Amino acid sequence: xxxxxxxxxxxxxxxxxxxxxxxGATVALEDVSIRVAAGEVLALVGExxxxxxxxxxxxxxxxxxxxxxxxxxxxxxKPANPLDARYAGVTMIYQELSLAPHLSVEENIVLGMEPxxxxxxxxxxxxxxxxxxxxxxxxxxxxxxxxxGKMSVGSQQLVEIARALAYGCQVLVLDEPTSSLxxxxxxxxxxxxxxxxxxxxxxxxxxHFIEEVKQVSDRVTVLRDGKVVGGGxxxxxxxxxxxxxxxxxxVEQLYPRSLRKVGETVLEVENLMGADKLQTASMALRQxxxxxxxxxxxxxxxxxxxxxxxxxxxxxxxIRIGVYTGPSSPMRRWDQGAGMVSEDRKVEGLxxxxxxxxxxxxxxxxxxxxxxxxxxxxxxxxxxLSVRCRNPRQRVIDLSGGNQQxxxxxxxxxxxxxxxxxxxxxxxxxxxxxxxIYKVIDELACAGxxxxxxxxxxxxxxxxxxxxxxxxxGKLGPTRQIxxxxxxxxxxxxxxxxxxx
Amino acid sequence: xxxxxxxxxxxxxxxSNWRRWLNxxxxxxxxxxxxxIFAAIAPASFRTTRNxxxxxxxxxxxxxxxxxxxxxxxxxxxxxxxxxxxxLSTVVIAWLLQKSGMSGVLANMGxxxxxxxxxxxxxxxxxxxxxxxxxxxxxxxxxxxxxxTLGMMLVVRGAAKGIGREQKIxxxxxxxxxxxxxxxxxxxxxxWMLVPVGVWILIILAVVTxxxxxxxxxxxxxxxxxxxxxxxxxxxxxxxxxxxSVYTLGGLFAGLAGLMQFSRLTVGDPxxxxxxxxxxxxxxxxxxxxxxxxxxxxxxxxxxxxxxxxIASGCTQMGMPNWVQExxxxxxxxxxVALDRLRHRRSV
Lengths: 501, 348
Prior knowledge:
- The structure holds two protein chains of two kinds.
- Chain A is an alpha/beta fold.
- Chain A folds into three domains: about 10-245, P-loop containing nucleotide triphosphate hydrolases (Rossmann fold, 3-Layer(aba) Sandwich), CATH 3.40.50.300; about 255-335 and about 415-500, P-loop containing nucleotide triphosphate hydrolases (Rossmann fold, 3-Layer(aba) Sandwich), CATH 3.40.50; about 355-415, no CATH class.
- Chain A contains 17 helices and 23 strands.
- In chain A, helix 15 (about 430-445) links the parallel strand 19 (about 420-425) and strand 20.
- In chain A, helix 4 (about 125-135) crosses helix 5 and helix 13 packs across helix 14 (about 400-415).
- Chain B has a single domain, classed as ABC transporter involved in vitamin B12 uptake, BtuC (Orthogonal Bundle).
- Chain B has 14 helices and two strands; from the N terminus they run ααααααβαααααβααα.
- Chain B has a two-stranded antiparallel ribbon with strand order 1-2.
- In chain B, helix 3 (about 80-100) packs parallel to helix 6 (about 145-165), helix 5 (about 115-140) runs antiparallel to helix 6 and helix 9 packs across helix 11 (about 240-265).
- The longest helix of chain B has about 40 residues, at about 5-40.
- Classes of the chains: A alpha/beta, B mainly alpha.
- The interface of A and B includes residues 351, 362, 371 and 398 of A.
């Protein structure tokens, strides 16, 4: 299949030259040029709103550029729509997967181009193509007849890549492919990327994780405010340089840590057992400290937070928040001075169709709501968190991911809670927003609030926490001071190889 | 903040203000347009103030029920039992009046039957009770509102027929007192009222409901639940309690619509208002309510109800047969919602 088109190794297989796009008064892209050779991985990095998605939409034919031209395999390339682009060999794999969950793997792979004779699907041919596409992944979960909806996110992603290959794709665009993958799946994905590279595919890799970019890409191009601001060979450019280019300013300290004063214990959990994944957890959280929970996705960290907050059932064990003991409902928890940020802002964290003001104040509304008062409260929070928006009445759905997350966090500030439960508060958001959230977390800790934070991103935990505990297969390990751990020991404990010393 | 950023912000604000105005006035403009069209092509009788009053009176029943439906739909639910509840309400009122009229005790005391106030309140209360039962079933059994209220539609209709013994309940005119005046034409000596009492009741209820939705915690919670129930739960909203209130209020409004229906017919009719819920849902949807929840407004719903009456009235005055009206109304529903979606797509 790889031999169908034989691109010349020396030349760039895909070129975008001088692409510009305006939406009304906003300049989304200005004279952007990028190029990828066959058998090369180009990393495209930039904060949210830098223009990465717009550029990729131009590439995939979803929007037409105002200016600029594109070349694919030496020929001019002008896709009129995404289907057109797909037939030309350009496929996007988006963050949100676009599979039909009720259909099987093979049905998904041939979806839209089912081999058929006079309208009757040739199932043998379907099976043959599916097996051809998935065989190289060597993943036991990928069986042609398996239902996609029942598979892990990582495997679903592979199905999507398999579909791209079955279409004869030459240029593969991966948009934040690892944001919801486990470490294992990430490793597997990287192996597949390097294999595709050897087959001569041109790959564009979009990510917020600089470490990943360093690991997987050959070259880096950095976008900021719709312009290319720099880049080069990955080997020759260091992480600080990339971040500096992305945010356009020196990030002296991404993780601020001011002098915090530890007070009395405000959250205590003893032998907590949940209904499903959470086996046992004991910990104590004090005022003025940030306690991190590390571990793999699916280890039960989210369930721990949800059980504490009353969203998931508790089977046995003891929870104490302030003077209140025992399990409770979210409504009571807010009254008791605890608040939670959900790991999934789209599904649970925010009511996307409602305004910023309603989302920020939802947990604590007076019996009679005065919009003017609501607006002034929210404007203060918007300034405090530098949320980029028009006004408090703007709908949350129109904001970028980072700004949405700030709104979700602002709710806890508006409620003036003392105990903050944060589940992956910086997942999938840009570096600038992350820095802002770290700053607020540090300020809150200094002001004597108690913060419990779950994250899969170890540098972040090591950067902002005072103490860290690791969760592995539903069991929460001992809490350790930040000085006693490093990425290596945490990872060992998270994967259950070492219980620590 | 740089000067450029300021400019962008200012431009964005005027843009959103303009859009907000359009969103509010859009349905009103549509209503005006429909009225103008008929005013131009229908006979002169369509343009009289008398006809305007008539349109108001005809809209009242659907509009009152639609206020309740607006709450239910904004909360992401649906209530298919409205028509049956209206029928039950008329039957309960008539039955109480008739029983009390015949039973010896009260009659002998010279009261001449039950006070119409009590009968009316019981009728409305029966509606609220039906809504409460629907709400309780939806929140306790966790069955979809569509299914629960579909069941309630049959249960309540059956109950109404049972109470009325499958017949209309006629009332002696003496027992009615003011009950038949709610939607009657305004008498000459009271011409300062402009419109009948029933229409005033509708206007007051509409203002109260709009205020409830906009300025109370309950109202904002209704929007939150409809927009994203999980978020509402995360934020400590008493989701079950709010839903229960919403369906109870929906039933209450349906009961009030039943009172108006009774006032117009002056009989308790268990077979009345079949399919009324569809008109009611149409009114909400034409007015910008979204069946997936989180969107809708009282003003929109009122306009939606009026648009349908104006079409009906215009068609009648032009002597068009019923089937033409039905086709036009059906087309309007689809066009209105399609336009609304188009508008939304542009604003995102």
